[in-house]
# Entry
Amino acid sequence: MSRFFSPKYQGLTPYTPGEQPKGQKFIKLNTNESPFPPSDRAVFAAGLEAKRLALYPDPTASVLTKTLANAFHVAEDEVILGNGSDEILFFAFSAFCDDASPALFPSISYGFYEVFASFARVPYVKAPLCDDFTIDTSAYKKNTHTVFLANPNAPTGILLPTSEIEEILRANPDRVVVIDEAYIDFGGESAVPLIRKYNNLLVVQTFSKSRSMAGARLGMGFAAPELIRDLQTVRNSLNPYNINRMTMAAGIAAIEDEAETRKNCQAIIENRAYLNQELCKLGFTFTDSKANFVFARHPRMGGRELYLKLRENGILVRHFEKPEITNYNRITVGARRDMEILVDTLRRILEEQQ
Ligand SMILES: *Cc1c(COP(=O)(O)O)cnc(C)c1O
# Structure
């Protein structure tokens, strides 16, 4: 740290992204990326748009906004775009949290929530999960905090039913409730249709997981026009050009190629069922994940030990150094062949250990 670094940031612990290995050939199951390439149409559109990189992108992202509004059956003023959904989450922490409305989220959830709250310098509270890793919804019904819930939750993959989300929305009429639907396309029911019913609801989604575009950095938020305007104020005060030209072009094409997204999600859902079945045969226990990852532990092996053994064998998964989940690993559901290699490797590791 230099002597010039502001004391206001000296206590900041940045987010630790999953490893992005260079060089070695790993089967990469650690950051929940898609094993499938982006839509051909998105790749082609981005390539064409590269010719116009001399010009700033449209700061209102009007074509992509219109395309998303149509696809999600909302109005254009109910949509905001972000450089990844992470950026929209950051806008929300900045816009809707303060001493009178501290942020509230589960103690086991997306690690960025805590980082964003710290960076935005807003207070936050973490509510413990129940012993079975489900969300204790009573903690979120106090009408005192700005609520952030990933649904399905990460890294557990557990889905909160829409009826529960509605109860939380109704219990917080004077606070914003943010539902982070990064993984909703792998088996959950989206809360987007509820934005007309609840003007305190912000739903955030991303192109990173189900649309195979993590590298493009594109996310979207859906809410009542008033909430969107507040988020636009933050966005326009930071970076009105937050969506670059190539990403915008790719995003439009990807939404127009929804059939490709559906097909890929279906393949992931099938591979998840296959992986769960094989993990079960090997003696693992795991949560009922509705995301593109499984969250599993083995009674005979610690989480970190298994993570390291897999790594030695060329497979990267995600292990979190948190006492409550230290026996677990989060394993991205990938292509079928990679799942077969994973299962064979796990079997070998467990046999060697006996
Ligand atoms: C991956 C992820 C995001 C955001 O990813 P972006 O790439 O920034 O869109 C948000 N929330 C959760 C829970 C995630 O897992």
